[in-house]
Structures are given as structure tokens and as C-alpha cells.
């Protein structure tokens, strides 16, 4: 279902013509587990999006309905739940709650939510629903907000209401993505630059169809390990506030002074930051050979030092290296399952998709999904 059908369905349900907000999911080309370390990331928004058809109500109710996610929800805007409900509508409620806390009165409304970002695949379905909700709620209230601020608001909702300590990457690229471009974001200053994707390559995203249980708890453990690393480095160099500030020289100098696990985590982050800015240069200069090396190093570091890969992801990554047209690939997103991202020459992309699926199916017994994606624009509202 796309926007016109969603609008039609909304009219059938609520007998008024809606406006529609759209927010995309993302794929991260490089810069993994760096965002919450004040570092660099290079994602792109993709066409999978969450669409919300919305229209005002005359009372203070917020009605949230979806045809594919279960449950219909009704809330009083003046008495929103203070605790998460454990359902998908927490992403909407979290955003509404933060807006209320910030003094927005909000207006009653009907929301019809349609999500096409695969869930649990590491393509940021949660950021997409948060951003689409924020745009809908702000628009109902006729209070536009600059998109970078929308991104920060949505991250806050996920951190404080949903309870996931995510960084800013997903919400930011969902808001600010640009068609045909990846996006080099400095997660400290929030300065960014668009990096054109070479026209001869496609993004091929391969979904392992697994998401291991530990994903959420281990994400928070990795964050805590990075914070522990910062405490050590700050003792030696008081100006250090985040792993972003640690140089390769400083890292190497203290290799034997840190607990081995903490050193491995720090080593991943410090080198991944460097790889990400190098990758932006390589991509902008059309140097796909260098990009391929950097993506491979990134995957190996996530596997061996940050320890967030899994055997299904490793199989998918290794399989890609044997196929024609492959210009670089790695796991993407938080890890422990989800997707790999691959740059593949357009002429080879169909064959690549079929062969990698076959390889993965034979090696694991699991039927994967393979998506040929392009980089798309970020969030928008339309009538
Ligand atoms: C998840 C989080 C992001 C980021 C990645 C890892 O997608 O939502 O903020 O930390 O993991 O790079």
C-alpha cells in the first residue's frame, strides 16, 4: 500500500481527507557503533518507509490504527501513559510524550500507520515510525520544527520512553537523507555532508532473517564498555570526553593498561571513525577498490573486536566476496542478525541477488530476503 491507497483507506475509516507523513528506514554503509561515541557514520535513507495518514479531531483523543500491526489504540492527550505499553505504538506515544513534556499542547487526531520497513532487520523501522509520528503530530498542531530537531526529539523518545539507548544515526538520516547520496554525519556536532553514490552501483541489502535474543542487552553492554574505556583515557588525557577524542597513537600506547575486552571495544571505535571519514573520501572520489577494503575491515573489526556479528552475518558477507560485480559489503546496523549491505555493479545486481540468496540458503537452511535499494530522500509531509 502506498500513499494514495493509504489516503483512500483513511477516508473510508474517518470520512475526511488526510495528510500523509513519510519517514524512511536506512542502511549504514560504514561507521558502526560510533554514533554514541560522538563519532562518524555514513548511512543512506532507503525507500522502505513508514507512512502515516493523519487528520485532526475535535476532542483531545489520539487514535492510532494500523492494518498490519495488531491493535487499535486510543489515548487522551492530557493523560498519556507514563510507562511504555510494550506494543509498537510506544514509538508514537514516546514522541507524543516528549512533545507534551516540552510544552506542546498537541491536537487530537486520527493516525493510520502503514509500515513497510522490515521489522527487526536492522533497517531502522523504529526510527522511521518515530519520525513519521513526530511529523504527523507537529503538523496536526501546526507547529513545524526543523528536521534536525525532530531527529533529536525522536532519539530522546526512544532513549527515555522505549528504553533503548540508541545513538542519533537512524533518526537523523531518516529526517535528512537525500536521494542518490550517502550521508557523512559527525555525531558530535551534527554537521553533515552528502556523498554521492557512484551511479554504476546498486545497494543490495541481504536480510539474514535472524535476530538473536542478546541484541538489546548486548547493545547496552557495548555502550557501557565504551564509557568505561573513556574513563581510563580521561585519566591519562583529561580533555577526552568520548572515544571520538582518542587517537590511534593514544590507543596503542595504552594497549596493556586497559582490560583486554575494553581495549578491543575502544580499538574498534577509534579505527572505525577513521575508516568512515576515509570511506567518504573514497566514495566521493569514485575509488571503489578502497571502499571495498574499508568495508571488509569494518566487518572484521565488528566481528573480532566489537563482537556484534554472528555466524549468519559472516556467511552472508563471505558469500558476497565470491560474486561478480561485488564492490564492498559488511554487516549493517546494531548486529546480532539483521542485514548485510553490499555495493554491487548495477549490471551484476540481479545475478548477485539470486546467487547470494542461494548460497545463504544452502549454507544455513534459512530463506533470506534480498532487497535492491537506492538511496532516497528523508522524511516529508504531503497532501
Ligand atoms: C542501532 C542504533 C544506532 C547505532 C547502530 C550501530 O541501529 O539505533 O544508533 O548505534 O545500532 O551503529
Low-confidence stretches: none
The DSSP helix count reads 11
Q: What's the number of extended β-strand segments? A: 12
Estimate the mean pLDDT confidence: 96
Shape descriptor: globular
Largest sheet: 8 strands, mixed
Approximately how much helix is present in the residues?
40-55%
First-to-last CA distance: 16 Å
Gyration radius, in Å: 21 Å
Overview of the structural elements:
- By secondary structure, the protein is an alpha+beta fold.
- Helices cover 42% and strands 24% of the residues.
- The chain has eleven helices and twelve strands.
- Strands 1, 2, 3, 4, 5, 6, 7 and 12 form an eight-stranded mixed beta sheet that branches.
- The chain starts with a helix and ends with a strand.
- The model has no long low-confidence stretch (mean pLDDT 96).
- It binds alpha-D-galactopyranose (GLA).
- Alpha-D-galactopyranose binds at residues 32-33, 35-36, 166-167, 169-170, 333-334.
Amino acid at each position: 500500500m502506498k500513499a494514495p491507497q493509504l489516503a483512500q483507506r483513511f477516508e473510508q475509516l474517518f470520512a475526511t481527507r488526510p495528510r500523509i507523513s513519510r519517514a524512511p528506514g536506512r542502511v549504514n554503509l560504514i561507521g558502526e557503533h560510533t554514533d554514541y561515541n560522538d563519532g562518524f557514520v555514513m548511512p543512506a535513507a532507503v525507500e522502505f518507509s513508514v507512512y502515516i495518514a493523519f487528520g485532526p479531531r475535535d476532542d483531545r483523543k489520539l487514535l492510532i490504527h494500523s492494518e498490519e500491526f495488531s491493535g487499535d489504540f486510543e489515548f487522551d492527550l492530557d493523560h498519556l501513559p507514563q510507562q511504555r505499553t510494550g506494543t509498537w505504538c510506544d514509538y508514537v506515544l514516546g514522541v507524543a510524550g516528549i512533545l507534551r513534556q516540552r510544552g506542546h499542547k498537541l491536537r487530537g487526531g486520527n493516525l493510520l500507520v502503514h509500515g513497510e520497513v522490515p521489522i527487526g532487520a536492522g533497517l531502522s523501522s523504529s526510527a522511521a515510525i518515530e519520525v513519521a509520528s513526530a511529523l504527523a503530530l507537529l503538523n496536526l498542531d501546526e507547529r513545524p520544527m526543523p528536521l534536525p530537531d525532530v531527529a533529536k526529539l525522536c532519539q530522546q523518545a526512544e532513549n527515555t520512553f522505549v528504553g533503548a539507548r540508541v545513538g542519533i544515526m537512524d533518526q537523523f538520516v531518516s529526517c535528512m537523507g537525500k536521494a542518490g547520496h550517502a550521508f557523512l554525519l559527525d555525531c558530535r556536532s551534527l554537521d553533515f555532508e552528502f556523498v554521492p553514490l557512484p551511479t554504476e552501483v546498486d545497494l543490495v541489502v541481504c536480510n539474514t532473517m535472524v535476530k538473536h535474543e542478546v541484541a538489546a542487552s548486548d547493545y547496552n553492554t557495548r555502550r557501557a564498555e565504551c564509557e568505561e574505556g573513556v574513563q581510563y583515557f580521561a585519566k591519562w588525557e583529561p580533555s577526552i570526553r568520548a572515544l571520538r577524542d582518542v587517537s590511534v597513537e593514544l590507543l596503542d600506547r595504552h594497549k596493556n593498561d586497559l582490560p583486554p575486552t575494553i581495549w578491543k571495544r575502544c580499538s574498534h571505535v577509534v579505527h572505525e571513525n577513521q575508516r568512515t571519514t576515509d570511506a567518504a573520501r573514497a566514495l566521493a572520489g569514485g575509488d571503489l577498490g578502497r571502499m571495498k577494503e574499508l568495508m571488509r575491515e569494518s566487518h572484521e573489526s565488528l566481528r573480532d573486536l566489537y563482537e556484534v556479528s554472528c555466524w549468519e552475518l559472516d556467511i552472508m558477507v563471505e558469500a558476497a566476496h565470491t560474486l561478480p560485480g561485488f564492490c564492498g559489503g559488511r554487516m549493517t546496523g546494531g548486529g546480532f542478525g539483521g542485514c548485510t549491505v553490499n555495493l554491487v555493479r548495477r549490471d551484476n545486481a540481479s545475478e548477485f541477488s539470486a546467487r547470494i540468496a542461494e548460497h545463504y540458503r544452502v549454507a544455513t537452511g534459512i530463506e533470506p530476503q534480498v532487497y535492491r535499494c537506492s538511496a532516497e530522500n528523508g522524511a516529508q509531509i504531503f497532501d
